[in-house]
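Suppose a colleague, Dr. K., hands you the sequence of a protein chain of 340 amino acids and asks what its three-dimensional shape might be. Before reaching for any lab equipment, you can write down a predicted structure in token form. Begin with the sequence itself:
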Amino acid sequence: MNQSPATAGTGASGVGHDSVPRAVLTAIMDLFSREGRIDPLPDDCRLDGQTALVTGANTGLGKAVATDLARRGATVIMACRSGIPDAGADVRHQSGSNRVTMEHVDLASIESIRDLCRRLADSGTRLDTLVLNAGLMPRTARRSAQGFEVMFAVHYLANRLLVENLTESGVVDISVGTSRRPRVIFVSSEAHKSSAPIDFANFGAFHDYGLTDGMKWYAHSKLHMSTYATELARRFAADPDSDCGVYHLCPGPINSSIARETPIWLKPILIPLMALFFRSPEKAAEPVIWLAGHPDLDAETGVYLHMMRRKDPSPLATDPENGQQLWTVGADQLSRLTST
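The predicted structure, expressed as tokens, is then:
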């Protein structure tokens, strides 16, 4: 299995992501760039016989991904905190597939994540594709069930716990010689390129923030995610007993509910901008679907897409020393959390 080589520039695109207005302007600039685009996965590329789990699938990008995967013949498990059962009924109707189920999970709760993993293992579920899509950007800082800042908890901690539980239980079978190499896909953000380095001495510490600096901590949580994705790909590729493709991406600007906590005074500006310039969830789902279904990726891992373009992640995310530190410090943290 080959790790994807560097393919493009590494700096933050546009004007950066360190505030909401700058992030919106950068997103619009990126949206109209056509350099290096790859073609979406053809409609006739089928996923019959495969099973995919999509987190945050009750709305927006996750729902669009679940619908497309189901339309291509995959069995789809929608893992959501809300929207049960209405969102599942919508996906079944829109995809024309009855192979769509829903599972409840609150990704801000370690216990809820562990419960989901146990249910999947006990039912004998085997996943070919794991799409770690759920995300949020609250207006002000708040804590998860275990006291972590909620974006750190959902974007990094929950995804790591899901991957490690599901691979250890065999729900995601990473052993060499399986009929199809599983794929793990992290929905990250170009904003991770604007983040300061991870503070490993205070790893997971709660940080208070408001509207003016929330984007900074969103980017920081996505740096945790992309660093973990890169290190996970590196470790699977180096292990002769494992076979798993790991990918991450930024779907680009989406006209979705992620801005639902925007202050009332800003919504008259932001919502029309999003409707006019940002992509629909269905269009934004294209890179996720490409990573989930393209047959050529069976020989690659570690690919990062920004919309439908291959790019380099941040040098901070790809630095092996940072990956090793994240792996070690994060493993100690999870061990303490799951032993209680």
